[in-house]
Amino acid sequence: MDAQTTTMTNEQAAQAAANKFLTLNSGNLAAYLESCVKCGNCATACHFYEVTGDPKYTPAYKLFPMARAHRRTKWPWNWFGGPKITEAELQEWEELLFDSCTMCGRCTQACPMGIDISSIVAASRQAFAAAGRGPADLFEAAENVLTKGSPLGVTPAVFDGRVEWLEDDYEVDLRLDRPKAEVLLTVSSIELMKYPKSIVAMARLLNQAGVDWTFSTKGYESTNFGFLAGKMDIARHAIEKLVATAEEVGAKLLVIPECGHAYGVLRWAGSNIIGRPLPFTVLHITEYLAQLKKEGKLQFRPIEQSVTYHDPCQISRRGGATAAARYLLEDATDFREMTPTGNFNWCCGGGGGVQAMSRAADLRHKVFQIKMKQVEDTGASMMLSACANCRLTMDDSKAYWNWDHELESLVELLAEHLVEDEPHPFDGKPHLA
Ligand code: SF4
Ligand code: SF4
Q1: pLDDT tens across 346-359, in order?
Q2: DSSP 340
Q3: Residue 313 alpha carbon, nearest atom of ligand 1
Q4: Other CB atoms within 10 A of residue 329 CB
Q5: For ligand 2, atom 6, which residue shows the shortest CA distance?
Q6: How many CA atoms lie within 13 A of 271 on its CB side?
Q7: Closest Cα to residue 395, out of 205, 191, 135?
Q8: Residue 265 DSSP one-character state
Q9: Atom 2 of ligand 1 has which residue's CA nearest to it?
Q10: How far is the CA of 274 from the centre of ligand 2 (A)?
Q11: What pLDDT does residue 433 have?
């Protein structure tokens, strides 16, 4: 929070939020706010409503303060002032816009008017951030991007040290700071700190496919907590860093690792955020691996275990890469879809930065009951995902519920079943970490 926002009175904060929202409220957002017919269809599409039955979690309700700010711009309200956003509303809606919206987009699929509630939530978060309102831990993670280079404090020196450690322990060539490369591979700091094997797995797969790739200590972090916190200056900073790095190494393709929101923000919002086209193509790692497999550059041994796949919202529903994971799982002899699945799959409960909000933990755990039931209904022994944030959310909820189902990364499982020119020394043996 900057000095200006800490010194605002409650009334000034409410006004600042309204003013900020109105600067963003052009075109599609205004059309969305005009279009709601209050049918309530979106309620049961939202996991927060589904597990609690509390009407305050109805997606359309989450938009009320901003819809009110929007109405003030309309005749005759703009003559007479109209209803204002109040400080009490700021307090009530902070939880609804941050803790209980994962920006998963499931409500939009149920909406007869096609209202993209997630995009209004994103704009509302910007309004709240302008008023200095929002979860302190999410804001701190966003500020870390400016001060340390990553939300979890992974500085370039830490990144360099982790890469060196992984290279030694896993006997894999992690190509760091090559001066030129066709592909810039990025990481999420969640992977780096919690799931480093997924980084090893990506390297093994790209090396086997003969890809000319590099990591860079100048631009490695793909997550974008500035976007999730509604702090667009930080979002822009993170994207510009990746753009400058890719330009320096001459990469025409930037690959996002197993992270959903990193993919959505860069691929679908990146150029709008920086105000010019991105100088590279953006692919999620599952899309890129599917492409390499199709080109005959990757082959996999059959996966014998029964598996099911959790679609990360920003990769499947909002990302458009739903088919890539299925294509990669063609080599699974017993693949079982969840119900619902694909673009209609349920959220893990931790997207949109909710995983980073400690005060949202109870609600997140409740939401995970939907996923547990989905997985149990398939009877599969292993659940896969292609998002480290989903994985962290689900691991945390698994521990909370003492639920002992196996949860793995899709990319790690693929690396373990990769047909390599030389067998990897750790295949079939326990890894070191
Ligand atoms: S985007 Fe997802 S979490 Fe947010 S209101 Fe819609 S269904 Fe609920
Ligand atoms: S489904 Fe769409 S139109 Fe109906 S209440 Fe929800 S947002 Fe409004």
Answers
A1: 999 999 999 999 99
A2: S
A3: 2
A4: 19
A5: 42
A6: 9
A7: 191
A8: I
A9: 104
A10: 31
A11: 41
Work out which ligand 1 atom sits closest to the CA atom of 121. Answer: 4
Say what the pLDDT of residue 79 is: 72
Place of tokens 């190494």: 249
Single-letter amino acid, residue 164: E
CA 120–ligand 2 middle distance (angstroms)? 13
Domains and CATH numbers, the chain: 3-134 (1.10.1060), 139-294 (1.20.1050), 307-416 (3.40.50)
* Site to substitute for ligand 2 among 56, 58, 115, most atoms within 8 A of C-beta: 115
pLDDT at 11: 85
Rounded Cα distance between 33 and 113, Å, is 11
Kindly state the tokens that stand for 206: 């790209």
Q: Give the ranges where 171-231 is alpha helix by DSSP (H).
A: 189-194, 197-208, 225-229
Does the beta carbon of 101 sit less than 6 angstroms from any atom of ligand 1? yes
Q: Is 358 helix (H, G, I), strand (E, B) or coil?
A: helix
Q: How far apart are the C-alpha atoms of 264 and 177, rounded to whole Å?
A: 26
How far is residue 433's CA from residue 427's CA, in Å, rounded to a whole number? 14
**List of the chain residues with pLDDT < 70:** 1-6, 75-76, 82-83, 422-433
Q: List, in sequence order, the alpha helices (H) in 255-360.
A: 260-263, 270-274, 285-294, 322-328
Give me the pLDDT at residue 69, please.
Answer: 84
Q: How far is the CA of 117 from the centre of ligand 1 (A)?
A: 7
